[in-house]
Amino acid sequence: MSKNFELPPSLSINGNEKIAKDILSRIWGKQGMFTCTVANTLTSTIPGLSDAGDTPELTMFTPAADAELLVLGKTVCMKGIPINPGGIPTPATLTQAALELSKIPYLIVNGGCKVIPNIPCIEVGGEYGEKVTTGHAVKHVKEVFEKGKIFGELLAKSYDFIVISESCAGGTTTALAVLMAMGVVKENLVSSSSPNNPKELKTNTVLEGLKAAGINIGDLKDDPLKAIECVGDPMIPVNAGILIGAAKHIPVIVGGGTQMAAVIAAAVILDPSVIGNIFQGTTRWLLNDPNSNMIKIMDSISPDIPIINVNMDYSSSPYEGLQAYEWGYIKEGVGCGGASVAAIIESEGKITCDDLLERVHKIYKNIMNFD
Amino acid sequence: MSKNFELPPSLSINGNEKIAKDILSRIWGKQGMFTCTVANTLTSTIPGLSDAGDTPELTMFTPAADAELLVLGKTVCMKGIPINPGGIPTPATLTQAALELSKIPYLIVNGGCKVIPNIPCIEVGGEYGEKVTTGHAVKHVKEVFEKGKIFGELLAKSYDFIVISESCAGGTTTALAVLMAMGVVKENLVSSSSPNNPKELKTNTVLEGLKAAGINIGDLKDDPLKAIECVGDPMIPVNAGILIGAAKHIPVIVGGGTQMAAVIAAAVILDPSVIGNIFQGTTRWLLNDPNSNMIKIMDSISPDIPIINVNMDYSSSPYEGLQAYEWGYIKEGVGCGGASVAAIIESEGKITCDDLLERVHKIYKNIMNFD
After folding, report:
1. How far apart are the C-alpha atoms of B207 and B229, rounded to whole Å?
2. Looking at the 3D structure of chain A, how many domains does it have?
């Protein structure tokens, strides 16, 4: 691998191409490890806020069910798989496809769940989060962050790169709140798993949280852990810790959409030296979303953190539940973009979007008991 | 790798050579994963029973401290490192050397600790164990066993082999109790971390436990989970689960001494199909112990589970704390034998006993703050 690095058509680079290609060339064909941090925030139960579940109550089951799906191939904590209203399946289906094809090892981290997945998880001492509107949304932030850092350092001893990711319903709202508390964004640029992003409700909820915490936009520019404690969710400090612990030694792919922007924003304030060793791994769907602006958010964090997306396209899928991804539903989550990017990297591009789509169909058919 | 498989001088095979060489040839140079399950049993606080700690009270800190040593390179839950009375250092020093040299990935599993290590662990829902003399020594056995199985299956998706191991002070007594409840042994053949194995005290303690549980020797021949629940410790069901979950797909190295015999005995009753895909990985010290008889225990479990030992020899070490291993102290623990065997396998024999000894000296000097 060298400067002549050729990007396969399954991947696209956005932002700083030089850094992206430098990192890619260092991990091309090497061995990665995928982690997904699951957590609950009661924020997801605010009616109308989160579509990551068929009802506001069911959003609390989505992280645990996603984790069970990845590890067991089925859910135990609830009947059926996590769906958005309308029956659109969780992006964990794509994550699973990428992990199965690549055989990349993976672990679930319990960032703090109210509904705990029925599988062995990495425990970091987290607790489920309160509603962002309370202004004291996350407990044990410092402890959980430190444990995350230790975990990142441990993984860096044995792997060439890692992927971090999340399943935390309601998390785009808490991400927005953290980004605003830190002054990274001053307006609502975050995504939604619905094409009808409830932007006004989200913004008002965030402003209520900031007010309850007694902070103005940008007040916590230099204190991300405090911002997380006030208005974040339990997924953010674990992943910020894992990122920093690992990225001092090996490249880290931050798998996910705007939720993970809060992780990156917090991490680069806590340890700017990670820049140059991280990129975001996501989907084409997320970047094409007209209702959010990942690239703008990332620009205001740092011009030196590229975004690499997998060019998955479900428009030719025979299943309406999957076609819906092309209509603006879901877009990202459960590290589906990061896992796909990692599978392509580890296989030196031998795994393609077509391979992934075929495996997603197999998984989807199996889950839905289609013939 | 083929039938002409040549064993390096750093390893010796005991028992079924054909099966040992078959497994070795399938994993030689392949990629493994090391796990160590830490747990507490109050059995270790019975005065005179366990030497895995400077005092009976300190034995409760030994598992957590061993785990911290492997992950952090230092202890947090206590001052100094776990030692036997007389200052003989924990075998985790050898485990650490093997993991550092080989870069084999590793994870700590919390089987059920009262003193919880200050690191991220795999959580399986275990709780610390009561004294074996109560006759109801372990809670949640079935749940913990099932979680262990899921974890073993998860690891088997991505690795070519795994090592399971333990740090659980007091565990030779609970192992003896389980082996007697199952009728695998009818006399005390288990080891001790002291050269003055308190065999009579152990036997009497075990008989008290069996009596309290209302069971006779051999009564639970076909119900190992019940035997563990009555007179075992929380390490045993997790490791039996991991073994079964993984060994259906990939070879499993059972790292450790007579404590792990209880794990093997339970696992082969629960799923005899694992035989042919497992061997015990241990040390020369354990097999040379005149006060225990690992080979006899294994013979009565199955003639088809070989023992492969690493030929570490500390007699030329300049440190008395390490020379003590040659005088019958410690012998095994924290998967030191299994990790060493795995490091030799993964490196295709390039890592030798001399390399391991050199690294142990470095680690020991560093921990003890010698010049």
Report:
1. 15
2. 1
